[in-house]
Amino acid sequence: IALIGSFEHSFEKDTLWWSDEVYNILGFDLSNTPPKYEVFIKGFSGKDAEQLNTLISRAEKYGENYSINYSYKLPNSGIVKHVYLNAEVIFDENNSPVGLKGIVQDVTKQKEVQMKIQITDQRLKISTGAAAMGIWDWDIVNDQLIWDDYVYTLFGVEKGASIGGLHYWLDAVH
After folding, report:
1. Interatomic CA distance for residues 153 and 78, integer angstroms
2. CA distances from 137 to 116, 147, 151 (A)
3. What does pTM read for this prediction?
4. Which of the residues 67, 132, 137, 143 has an alpha carbon 20 to 30 A from that of 79?
């Protein structure tokens, strides 16, 4: 349901373990061992692959945990998924980094919803701008008005100025 898998990576042995869900998220066959790093990294865009290589290197060298959001192209289908990865460094008894453990989460649906919201927001701004309309809201709990840029213009108020609560709007209208 949550589309979250876990992994472990040993720096010393150069071994990798994936939960079944990581295989599913990244589109690899469960009957195989995790792919070699060179095969796995091919699913990343150039920039994302470079960033992940840097993060892993810093984890091994300096013991730094990391998290990254990236796009991953599935090896067999070419479908692109949006994935969140969070890794924590494993230390030995001498406090030296020896590996990583972490989670991989498929956030494709969340990313798609986020992109739809951004598109809708852009369309709304274009529509209200073309219609010379402003949009406002009232935060009842805190008695605060929330105005878009055009409402500031309509009322002749400097954009971003503190406008107070509903009483300001009522006084201006009546």
Report:
1. 48
2. 22, 7, 11
3. 0.73
4. 67
